Amino acid sequence: MDLVFVIIVEMLYAVASLVLISAGLAIVFGMMKIINLAHGEFMMMGGYVTITAVTLGANVFVAMLIIAPVVVGLIGLVVERLVIRHLYGRLVDTMLATWGLSLFFIGLATMIFGNTTTGISTPISGFTVGNYQVNGYNFFIILIAIVLLGLMYAVLKGTRLGLIARGAMQLPDMAAALGYSPERIYMATFFCGSALSGLAGAILAPLVGLVPTSGGAYIAKAFITVIAGGPSLITGLMASSGLFGFISQIFTFAVSPVMGEVALLVAAVVLLRLLPQGVTGKFFRGRL
Amino acid sequence: MASFWAKEVPATIIVAALLIWIMPMMIGTYTLTVLLIYGMLGFSLGLIWGFGGILCFGQAAFFGLGAYTYAIAAINIGDSTIPMLLAVLVPAAFAALLGAMMFYGRLTDVYLGVITLVVTLILFKFISSTAGPEYVIGKARLGGFNGIPGFQTLNVPGRPNDYIYGDPYFYFCAVLLLIVYLLVSWLLKSSFGRVAVGIRENEVRVALMGYDVSARKTVLFAIGAAIAGLAGGLFANWGEIVTPNLFSLGQSAEIIIWCIVGGLGTRIGPIVGAAGLAYLKFLLGQQSMIDNTLLTGIILVLFVLFLPKGLVPAIASLWRISFGQRRQLPRHGARRIRSGGARHG
Amino acid sequence: MSINRRHFLASAAAATGAIMLPRAVMAADTIKLGSVLDVSGIFDAYGKPMDMAMRLAVSQINAAGGLLGKQVEVVGYDTQSDMALYSQYAQQLVREDKVDVVHGGILSASREAIRQTLHKNKTLYFYNVLYEGGVCDRNIFINGVTPAQQAEALVPYAMGKSGKKVYIVAADYNYGQITARWLQKFVADNGGETVGVDFFPLDVSDFGSTIAKIQTAGADLVIAPLVGGAHLSFFRQWAAAGMKDRIALASTTMGVGNEHKVLTAEEGNGIMVAYNYSQELDTPENAAFKEAWVAAGGDAGGMHELAVSNYHGVLTWAEGVRIAGTLERDAVVEALETGVSITGPGGKVTVDPKTHHAVLDVHLMEVENQGMRVVETLPQRQPIDTQAVCDLGANPDDNTQYEIQI
Amino acid sequence: MAEIVLETAGLTMRFGGVVATDNVDFKLRAGELRCLIGPNGAGKSTFFKCVTGLLTPTGGQVFMRGHETTGWNPRQVAALGVGIKTQVPNLMDGLDVHENIWMAARRFLPMQDAMRKASEVIERLALGPIARTELGRLAHGERQRVELGLVVAGDPWLVLLDEPAAGMSADDVERMSDIIREMTRTAAVVIVEHDMQFIRSIASTVTVFHQGAVLMEDHVDRVMADPTVRNVYLGKKA
Question: What protein family does this chain belong to (chain A) (predicted)?
Answer without folding.
Answer: Belongs to the binding-protein-dependent transport system permease family. LivHM subfamily.
